[in-house]
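Q: Joint fold for the lines below.
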Amino acid sequence: MEREDLMGHAARVGSYFEMRLATLEALPLVGQVRGRKLMMCVENVADKVTKRVLPDEANESKRISNAAEAMGLMVRPLGHLNVMSPPLVITEAEVDFVVDTLDRAIRQVTDELVREGFALG
Amino acid sequence: MTAAFKPNSPSPVELWEMDRTHSLHPWTNFGPFAAEGALVISRGEGCCLWDAEGRQYLDAVGGLWCTNIGLGRKEMAQAIADQAERLAFSNTFVDMTNDPTARLSAKLASLAPGDLNRVMFTTGGSTAVDTAVRTISYYQTCMGRPEKTHVVARDYSYHGSTYLAQSVGKRPGDRVPEFRYKETGIHHLSVPNPYRRPEGMTEAEFCDWLIAEFETLIDRVGADRIGGFIAEPIQASGGVIVPPEGYLKRMWEVCQNHDILFIADEVVTSFGRLGHWFASWDEFGVQPDMICTAKGLTSGYVPLGALILSDRIWEAMAADGAA
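A: Joint structure:
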């Protein structure tokens, strides 16, 4: 860790991860992106203003992690959250893959939820 | 019904079936598990995993907040192999030790903030927390305060899975009726989650409210009975909760005012996740009395945790035991 300055790398790539992941707050399903450096999560909500969560049967965070997994990305579903804590050695290109893939997975699951009649917004 | 044990290179489907039939996973959803089983992971390198069928994944979960230096490092594998060959085990009770214990405890003392210079190794984070909480009553008794044994934690905290650690933690989803939890002497304060703070409160007002809640609890229970406060600097499994600005430092100050030990559960936040060896001081300006660490300590290559104690705690225990 000292030889490769993993603390410095984690701080730099972690800031990049924070910045890139924050863009997902623009998605209708995302209430908040939070965390610091390489300890981040996305909180899913049914309504961004009231912060109302989806009913349990929507199971949206597990469905998002399943959709991401099918696209080659593992994120952790936890309640209404999708949590990420990648290895410190992650590169900016890998961060781009994580954010872009999670973006696609959230959009896909949002479309499914709308089709199934869950009230969003 | 049993799945056949296959010692030599079982196929992916055989692995899946052996696991499905015989392995109990933490937090299993029994319904889906019976039908779907588990994803079998067979190889890892850097941030990538490959399943038994050869499909590749980028593991943004980092194992379980823990594969910090990345998987598949030959240097690590070789060091583990060399140590296993030289000395696989010797006990560290009373007055015996071994080279790795001596070297790693000195290294951790050099990395940990302030006077955190004493290290007790454990098998993981849960047992580090368990040991920290048990140390509260030991220390306070040595200090002549045998009633000062209660511990304060927060809602939505996760501190591990021993009986004591699961009782100190309090994630809503973990509090199932099938388990039993120790309740005597354990108190929980509100989760410092700014996103879900009470309506109409600014973040600063919310922080004031949280501090006041702690002080009210101390008034009610008695400063002579509360011996320790345990907190993850950022609550991890409770939902990656970054507390309001200044919260952790002010909670620490309350502890200082009442001789309450401040235990930082840094099992997740230490070893680089926030860009520091330890987050308490470098990220939040707090000097804990004890730090619990694990996970990134070995990046998952071997199971290991540690409780890092202050010289002050050591000296109190030593003075009491000197006779």
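Q: Anything notable?
A: Chain A touches chain B at residues 1, 6-8, 10-11, 14, 31-32, 34-41, 43, 51, 69, 72-76, 78-79, 81, 83-90, 94, 97-98, 101-102 (CB under 8 Å). Residues 26 and 79 of chain A are 21 Å apart (CA to CA).
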